Amino acid sequence: MMIICTLTQVRHWKKLWGIAKPFTLLLFLLYAGQATLYAQAKRPITGVVVDSNHKKVSGASIRVKGTSLATVTDDNGAFMIQVPEANHLLTVSKLGYGQLEVDIHNKNSVEIVLSDKTIEIEETVVVGYGRQKKETVVGAIAQTSGKILERAGGVSSVGAALTGNVPG
Known about the structure:
The protein is of the alpha+beta class. Helix content is about 30%, strand content about 30%.
């Protein structure tokens, strides 16, 4: 009895799948066509990044605001990025320079001038894994000079030279 029910069910599902298969394929094709309609058209934006003395800035980061699209300038300060039609702002930044937002509405080429940004060395603390502001450091801060490190002599690492020479 159980085998007969199972064979009957298999025949029933085969018949249903034979009817539904063309409709499934049609629905898939319609969905795939809709997905391409929603894809954003992109336009190329080219440009050059210079500093306040009109020297080319290499390694500057250019991002399309509100997206994950980004690029970096080459050795000549030049860049090219594909920007969706709906986006009109580029964010340009580089360490040592101020961050700048550039409006690219109706432009295909831009020249971006970054201004120098000075930081006070007194407010910066160099740590073994990055850089932090003095007020955000949790733990001890010690100061040393090159003469103290030279006294250690013959060590293989800076950490070994600091051991016993710097409090904290």
